[in-house]
Request: fold
Amino acid sequence: MKPVVIFRHACCEGAGYLGTFLAQHAIPWCEVRIDKGEAVPASVDDYSGIVLMGGPMSVNDDLPWIPPLLQLIQQAVQADVPLLGHCLGGQLISKALGGVVSKNPVKEIGWGDVQVADHAVARDWFGDLQGFNSFHWHGETFTVPEGATHVLSSAYCANQAYVMGKHIGLQCHIEMTPSMVKIWTEQWKSDIASSAASPAVQSADTMLAGVEADCEVLHRVADKVYSRWIQGLAA
Reply:
């Protein structure tokens, strides 16, 4: 089986629980570390699926790796190679497919409820869940690209996820592990401090207070989404 390729855009925003999930299902994966200057592949031919993780940059920034990555995303859609985007990753997929990424009304940092849409597409990916407590760390938001279906929302961000066939783009982070939450609260503490006035921003202590249990619940949600996603992996 060809590997899943995971794009890492920041050293502390790697595969997380997705890496564990893929290993548990004996699915090979490799990493392109954008943060280390590794090049974007020219073709999707060597991969069964493409995953895009989060990062502190904006998809609207003038960065040399963004145009080729947007082209690779478009190529994946044309070749029917499934895409999975987390936060920045979901924004990259949206932009590649003609969507718009812009400033969210407020920054959303920490744990917060998301609601699952009540229709067949959402149930296909999230089962009978009506909502769940997810992790958030973003200041921008995407529009749902043409041809995709809106599946998740939150009180502070209307577009939390969309699905288009085999592809899913998420604004929220379902890949979190307790260690990742801890590292992020240390790495990005200035982001927490500068955004403290937002009603959707939690303190580090609040984020970490029940992190083991919170991540355990989130992993059950991720299991549903990732299990659905791997059904579409290219041969």
Q: What stands out?
A: Residues 110 and 136 are 5 Å apart (CA to CA). The radius of gyration is 16 Å.
